[in-house]
Amino acid sequence: MPIGNGAARTKDDSKLLIKWDDANGASITECTQTNDISENGISFFLKSPIWLDTHLTITIASSELFGHLHKVTGKVVRIQTDPAGKQLIGVRFD
């Protein structure tokens, strides 16, 4: 899934903690894992509903690219939902 300027994306399975505010201002937190990652963005699956352009805070437990306990912010730029309702989320880092 190309995001940003097309930086090379690598498969990864790092644990993630994703935080954002919903449309009503309620804080949502979900644990998941990386699908793939680059210097410019990341993709992962979420169970909770989310909107395009939502701003997120992402804590990456450990990755070869960013090391241990790296916190980044980003914006949802892509949501792909499969027939079973599983959401693949693409985020561009700020």
Structural description of this entry:
The protein is built from no helices and seven strands. It is 0% helix and 61% strand. The mean pLDDT is 89. The radius of gyration is 12 Å and the shape is globular. The chain starts with 9 loop residues before the first strand and ends with a strand. It is mostly beta strands and 94 residues long. It has a six-stranded antiparallel β-barrel. It has strands at residues 10-11, 15-21, 27-37, 41-46, 55-63, 67-81, 87-93.
Strand content: over 45%
Count of helices? 0
State the domain count: 1
Which structural class should the secondary elements be placed in? mainly beta
Coarse morphology? globular
Q: Rg, please?
A: 12 Å
> What is the CATH topology?
Thrombin, subunit H
User: Distance between the terminal alpha carbons, to the nearest Å?
Assistant: 18 Å
Largest sheet entry: 6 strands, antiparallel, barrel
CATH class wording: Mainly Beta
Give the number of DSSP strands.
7
Q: Give average pLDDT, whole number.
A: 89
Q: Helix-strand pattern, N to C?
A: EEEEEEE
The percent of residues in helical segments reads under 10%
| Largest beta sheet: strand ordering | 2-3-4-7-6-5
In the CATH hierarchy, what is the superfamily? predicted glycosyltransferase like domains
Name the poorly predicted regions: none
- What's the CATH architecture? Beta Barrel
